[in-house]
Amino acid sequence: MRSLRVWSRTAPSLEEQRSVIISASRRTDIPALYHQWFMNRIRDGFCLVPNPFNRKQISRVSLKVEDVDALVFWSKNPHPMLKHLDELDRLGYLHCFLFTLNDYPSELEPALPDLEERIRTFKLLAEKIGPKRVIWRYDPIVISSISPFTFHEQRFERLSRSLSGYTGRVIVSAVSYYRKTERRLGELAKQGITIHKNGVDHPEMLALLFSSESNPSDSTTA
């Protein structure tokens, strides 16, 4: 079962039909990996969503166009989803993309197409649905022995130039260290890669987080 997050626009009574924003998804890359599953759910008009804290608790969520305010796709590689956008438009769904685009070494961000291919996908998507509906995420910012502060300064500037005119907003944020993150750090340590956790509080991190203000696009830090 794939994971969706459902955001309620209002707090209706039990008798009322909720209108929702479907977040697809912060838990996994649905546009890249499960796009066909998602479209099947759209055609059937519903999906089943497990509670992440109690997998036995299952909610049925309507995906009928009249019940959905918008679809928000989160992805590092939304290219496989492009072929489905015309159908979503034809059915009447409003949608936008949060496109995570970094330039990390493969040790930090494996199993992705090369950078130039992802930039082409970003531009194709913006040309198809409009730059205001494609939000660039430069995150998480990881300070490490192979991605120091200067690495991010250079990569962010290069990507900003490449995406100029193809997005109206960029979101930047520092890495948060959860249990899953800690396990991944242990794997990187075995490869001789050091993560500088105190980099989050370093003055240069603040400079990185707010460097997007020099970009002509709107920016948000998190």
Walkthrough of the structure:
The protein is built from seven helices and nine strands, in the order E-E-H-H-E-E-E-H-E-H-E-H-E-H-H-E. It is an alpha/beta fold. The protein has a single domain (5-221), classed as pyruvate-formate lyase- activating enzyme (Alpha-Beta Horseshoe), CATH 3.80.30. It starts with a strand and ends with a strand. Mean pLDDT is 86; it is low at 7-16.
**What structural category do the secondary elements indicate?**
alpha/beta
Coarse shape: globular
- Give me the side-by-side strand order of the main sheet: 1-2-5-6-7-8-9
Strand content: 25-35%
Cα-atom Rg, whole angstroms? 19 Å
Average predicted local confidence, pLDDT:
86
**CATH C-level:** Alpha Beta
Largest sheet: 7 strands, mixed
Estimate the helix proportion, in percent. 25-40%
Tally of strands: 9
CATH domain fold name: pyruvate-formate lyase- activating enzyme
Number of helices: 7
Distance between termini? Answer: 30 Å
Q: How many domains?
A: 1
CATH architecture group name: Alpha-Beta Horseshoe
Unreliable segments (pLDDT under 50, ≥5 consecutive)? 7-16
What is the H-and-E element order?
Answer: EEHHEEEHEHEHEHHE
